[in-house]
Write a structure and sequence with these properties.
single chain; alpha/beta; Rossmann fold; 2 domains; 7-stranded parallel sheet; 6-stranded parallel sheet; 17 helices; globular
Length: about 425
C-alpha cells in the first residue's frame, strides 16, 4: 500500500508532541510493509528540526508554505471566515505541490496528520479517488474555547472567542469530508463525533518507541551523565524539568502559570530547587526567567538527557485536548510526572498510582514537593507509569492500530469502530 502522509513540520523521533507522534505514525506504517511519502508543510527559513531522520524511512517533500504569525495577520483574521490557525496553512504553493506529487505517482490512501492539513483536502480530492483519513491528535475547537476562557481583558477574550467559533464551524464542515477520522482517545473520538455527527470516528492510541526511550534513559543514568548546555558543556541535572514547544500559546500559558503561581511555593519550602525549561519557539519574556536556579535551554538536539536526568517532569497544562505525548515520553524514560487533570486525560493513568495530579497551584506545588523529598515514591510512580505506557503505547508492538485502520479503509471497509 502506498501512503501519502500530509503533515506540518518534519516528523522527528528526538523531539516532543506532534513531531514525535508523526514520526512514529510513519514507523508503524513502514513496519507494516507500506510505502510512505511525506508532504511536510513548514515555515520558510530555518526550522527547529530537519528532515534527516524521517528521510531514512520515507520519501520527503518539504514545502515552505506556512505563514508566520504577525500583528498584521492577526488583525486581518478578524474579518476572515477561517480561523487563523487554519488560514496559516492555506497556500497556493502547497496546492501546486500536491498536484505535482499526483502527476508523478498514485497512492492507495491519503493520511492527514491534523485538521490543519484539511486546507489541502479539496486539492487532493481533485487529483485522486483514494480514501482520505484524518488523524486528529486533539480537538482544536476545545483548545481554543479553553484558551478564550483564560484571556484577560475583554478585547483579547472577544478575539479568542471569535477564533474558537470559526474553528468549531471549520471542524463541523471538514470532519465529515474524510472517510475516517482517528483520535488518540475515546474521549476525543466522542467529542469529534458530537461536533460532526456525520463523521466516521475511530479511537487510535498514540504509539512511540517505548523500549528504546527507556534504554537510552537508563544508559544515561548509569553513566552519570549531565544534561548538555547551550555551549556544549554539561550541567547538573535539574530537580524539575518543563518540556514543550513554546511557540504554542497553551504551552506558554502553562509555563506562565507554573513559574508565577506554583514555583514560588516550591521554592519557599526548598529555595535551591532547580528548574530547566526546554523547547523551541520561546517568547522573549522567557529570557527574564533565567537565574542561578532556573535554566532556559531552548531548542535542543535531543530531549532525552533533560527528561531522564530530572527528578520530576511537570505538565501544568490548563488549556488542551487530546493526549500529551510528553507524558508518555517521560514515563517511557521512567521519570516521575506531576500533571493537571487536563494534562493527563485520555491516557488511563491514575493519580497516586502512576503519577500525581494537581489542579490548583497549592495542590500542584504540594505534589512536586512530595516527589522531590521522597526518591522512593518517585521511583515507584515512575515504574508503575512506565508499565502502563509500555503496555498501551508501544509503536513497535506486533500489531498497529493505525496500520490496521488504514488498511481497512484502503480496502473500502472502515470496520466496526468507525460507526
Amino acid at each position: 500500500m502506498r501512503v501519502l502522509f500530509v503533515t506540518q513540520g518534519f516528523p522527528e523521533p528526538r523531539m516532543i508532541g506532534g513531531q514525535i507522534a508523526s514520526y512514529y505514525s510513519v514507523v508503524q506504517l513502514t513496519r507494516a510493509g507500506h510505502d510512505v511519502a511525506c508532504l511536510c508543510q513548514v515555515t520558510s527559513g530555518p526550522t527547529p528540526t530537519g528532515d534527516t531522520a524521517i528521510s531514512e524511512i520515507a520519501q520527503v517533500t518539504p514545502v515552505e508554505s506556512v505563514a508566520a504569525n504577525s500583528l498584521m495577520r492577526y488583525a486581518l483574521s478578524v474579518v476572515d471566515p477561517l480561523p487563523w490557525p487554519i488560514r496559516r496553512y492555506v497556500s497556493a504553493k502547497a496546492r501546486e505541490t500536491v498536484r505535482r506529487i499526483f502527476e508523478i505517482g498514485s497512492f492507495d490512501i491519503i493520511l492527514f496528520n491534523s485538521i490543519h492539513g484539511a486546507t489541502l483536502l479539496e486539492t487532493v480530492r481533485e487529483n485522486t479517488d483514494a480514501p482520505c483519513v484524518l488523524f486528529a491528535p486533539n480537538v482544536q475547537s476545545t483548545i481554543m474555547e479553553l484558551f478564550a476562557s483564560f484571556q484577560l481583558g475583554s478585547l483579547r477574550r472577544t478575539y479568542a472567542r471569535l477564533q474558537w467559533r470559526r474553528m468549531l464551524t471549520f471542524e463541523e464542515d471538514r470532519l465529515p469530508q474524510f472517510d475516517v477520522v482517528c483520535a488518540y482517545s475515546r474521549e476525543d473520538a466522542e467529542q469529534l463525533a458530537a461536533i460532526a455527527p456525520g463523521a466516521k470516528v475511530a479511537a487510535c492510541p498514540i504509539a512511540l518507541d517505548i523500549i528504546s526511550m527507556r534504554d537510552a534513559a537508563d544508559e544515561l543514568r548509569a553513566s552519570g551523565a549531565s544534561a548538555p548546555s547551550a555551549d556544549g558543556s554539561s550541567t547538573p541535572a535539574s530537580d524539575i524539568v518543563f518540556v514543550a514547544y513554546l511557540g504554542w500559546r497553551p504551552n506558554q500559558d502553562s509555563l506562565r502559570w507554573f513559574v508565577d503561581e506554583i514555583l514560588p511555593t516550591i521554592r519557599k519550602e526548598r529555595p535551591s530547587t532547580t528548574l530547566t525549561i526546554v523547547g523551541a519557539g520561546g517568547p522573549q519574556w522567557l529570557e527574564r526567567l533565567e537565574d542561578e536556579h532556573t535554566r532556559v535551554a531552548g531548542t535542543v538536539e535531543d530531549i532525552t538527557p533533560y527528561i531522564s536526568l530530572a527528578k520530576v517532569f511537570v505538565v501544568p497544562l490548563r488549556i488542551g485536548s487530546g493526549v500529551r505525548v510528553k507524558i508518555v515520553q517521560a514515563l517511557a524514560m521512567r521519570t516521575a510526572v506531576v500533571s493537571t487533570s487536563k494534562g493527563c486525560e485520555g491516557l488511563g493513568l491514575e493519580h497516586g498510582a502512576h503519577l500525581l495530579v494537581g489542579d490548583t497551584p497549592a495542590a500542584f506545588a504540594g505534589a512536586v514537593l512530595q516527589l522531590l523529598e521522597d526518591p522512593t515514591r518517585r521511583q515507584v510512580l515512575a515504574d508503575a507509569g512506565h508499565a502502563v505506557v509500555a503496555d498501551q503505547f508501544d509503536a513497535l508492538s506486533p500489531s498497529s492500530r493505525l496500520a490496521e485502520i488504514c488498511e481497512r479503509v484502503a480496502k473500502g471497509s472502515p470496520g466496526r469502530d468507525t460507526e
